[in-house]
Amino acid sequence: xxxxxxxxxxxxxxxxxxxxxxxxxxxxxxxxxxxxxxxxxxxxxxxxxxxxxxxxxxxxxxxxxxxxxxxxxxxxxxxxxxxxxxxxxxxxxxxxxxxxxxxxxxxxxxxxxxxxxxxxxxxxxxxxxxxxxxxxxxxxxxxxxxxxxxxxxxxxxxxxxxxxxxxxxxxxxxxxxxxxxxxxxxxxxxxxxxx
Amino acid sequence: xxxxxxxxxxxxxxxxxxxxxxxxxxxxxxxxxxxxxxxxxxxxxxxxxxxxxxxxxxxxxxxxxxxxxxxxxxxxxxxxxxxxxxxxxxxxxxxxxxxxxxxxxxxxxxxxxxxxxxxxxxxxxxxxxxxxxxxxxxxxxxxxxxxxxxxxxxxxxxxxxxxxxxxxxxxxxxxxxxxxxxxxxxxxxxxxxxxxxxxxxxxxxxxxxxxxxxxxxxxxxxxxxxxxxxxxxxxxxxxxxxxxxxxxxxx
Lengths: 195, 251
What we know:
Chain B: It is found in: Cytoplasm. Chain B: Its EC number is 4.3.2.10. The complex is a heterodimer. The mean pLDDT of chain A is 94. Chain A has a single domain (3-193), classed as 3-Layer(aba) Sandwich (Rossmann fold). By secondary structure, chain A is of the alpha/beta class. Chain A is built from 6 helices and 13 strands. Chain B is α/β, with parallel strands linked by helices. Chain B has a single domain, classed as Aldolase class I (TIM Barrel, Alpha-Beta Barrel), CATH 3.20.20. Chain B is 37% helix and 24% strand. Chain B contains 10 helices and 11 strands. Chain B has an 8-stranded parallel beta barrel with strand order 1-3-4-5-6-9-10-11, surrounded by 7 helices. Mean pLDDT of chain B is 91; it is low at 20-27. Chain A binds chain B through residues 11-12, 14-15, 18-19, 21-22, 47-49, 111-119, 137, 139, 141-142, 157-158, 177, 179-183, 185-186, and chain B through 1-5, 40, 45, 70-72, 74-76, 93-98, 120-124, 166-167, 194-197, 220-221, 250.
């Protein structure tokens, strides 16, 4: 199986690579269009700021390539937000795979960003949660969120319920960092690789 | 529900884990990679590695160690000690660290916090504050707690937040090594005054101390070293105890 990790200048991908190493699967870290199109699975990771990340994707034409991918794609954290239509983070137009808005958390009593382990409640038919409990703890770090919508496949609650996972066609996305979410996170990645 | 975090801290010297009382009298408490993976397995929510020597010669050793830890650990981990530039941070993040912690270098040059937050994002920048009560006030200390500064702790905590720190690791030098409990009053003051998470450190000696720091101290995470290294408290027992007392825990 060929796994490609999208290479762009957002955040630290080392944790994603080491997570794949622990599972024992090889991967290529690349921004090459041909390799991305031919891969069996594509992982689109990221930590960072939306407008900067979009600018880097545009520089390489990745903003046009990623939405056209036909194989299963797993986007995490800022990767998930960049697949949405628009983000309130510096008023950024994103790739629009998921027809939803990314909003900024607002709270007077809870700390922002949302940092730490929180429980997610998954839809029964969410294939990435195969073999896991209906409620699992995963690791989050974010200040922006996707509201619950028809594409939501798992919900987390902080300030208000929000989308922990999204799914549409071949695009799967998680707001949390599966790569550092313990055994639950590892199982989610394994389930994605088994799709 | 967002859980409170239990964080074992591994003090590193020459690639080995050590922990002393009031930062002296170091004792060897094992191999950091092995210990880190064990803690992750036992339910630690995060790990912190502090390189307490951090000389130039040590940097390569540290980067290699970080790479080994990242290979074996499936929870977030932070690396601190001697970090003073964008290059330092870049090397550690590229080796697999999820966050870095800066201390003396931020006191020396507060703009570093802004620069690092801009370059890497606030989520991976922890500012560590070592504090001690001197002449009726809390003062920031540097160099492993040995040097007093002219900066007061409470306003400094606000400043590092405003400059873009993602979390604060607050170590009470008065409590550290005493096993008499965390500095709950100061932790609570800073946490209430802050919109970023506070990791409380120094003074953990019993399971009740963690309960107190999460309730009275309003901490978001509790950090300890020797009680975990010497197996005085097992992480799972601690988490079960806290959950039974109504503290949200990942178990």
